[in-house]
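Reviewer comment 2.1 asked that we show a complete input and output for one of the modelled complexes. We chose the zinc ion case, as it is the one discussed in the main text.
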Amino acid sequence: TVDIDASALRADINEFARIAQADNGTRAHGTAGYQASLDYLKQRLDVAGYTTRVQQFTHAGKTGHNLIADLPGRGDPNRVVMLGAHLDSVTQGAGVNDNASGSAGILEVALAYAASGADGDKGIRFGWWGAEEAGLVGSKAYVSSLNTTERAKITGYLNFDMIGSPNPGYFVYGDDTRGTAIAAALKAGFTAAGITSLSTDIKGRSDHASFKAAGIPTGGTATLSLAAAMSQAEADLWDGEAGKPYDPCYHSSCDGAGNIDFDALDAHTDVAAYAAWTLTGVKAPAES
Ligand code: PHE
Ligand code: CA
Ligand code: ZN
Ligand code: ZN
Ligand code: ZN
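Response of the prediction step:
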């Protein structure tokens, strides 16, 4: 497993914020800011050796796009672990914590996985979803597009939505008994980083729900729970601010470049990498 570089995450976040600024402050479904966000990811992934595919769908009279990336020649292509994040923002803002954070996090996991030469028993796939904010539209379109055989190849789906909140929590969800191995890997990742995580249930509030509905095991991490504010117990555990929201700029115009705790984003991304390496069955290199 690897330690993702926090400065790489900072550069990606700055790029998504710049893209939004160049397009009326948003990266919402159907906007130029969404398209530029997708173009940025696709270019980085293509250079790193991924096979990328843009899937189109239509919502509210506008074309939406998902980006799917496979890494050829690593593990069994018939048994893949998939990591995903929604790439769209709401129209009210740039969507930097929600969800440039998860988009940048899984991009850096993808780049690190390719660069490391990691070769596990299972294959790895990444997805960036359009129109999550309109009701998980992109991820539903992706899952619907898969036939029974293709669905069965996805052994698990890990979701990352809002992993850089300014008053951050360290939550794991895996709201399905079949997803236990995923939640366990994510918790073990936090433990390895010396962080106490808490389990939470975010219900159907992000793209994992589209996969869960198709019977695919799911899990993920987030810096927030569905509670309106951080509890005293959580604040004691994580040195946070009790009684304050995890993200006071949620779905608002202040969700910009300044709305990220980079230590939290780095920690959640390191955990995503830990789970990616563990669940694909990459063997630890021999001690030298
Ligand atoms: N998915 C929700 C959104 O994009 C927010 C959310 C993220 C809720 C993570 C719970 C956990 O608005
Ligand atoms: Ca790191
Ligand atoms: Zn588009
Ligand atoms: Zn949102
Ligand atoms: Zn979100």
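The mean pLDDT is 96. We note this here for comparison with the apo prediction described in Section 3.2.
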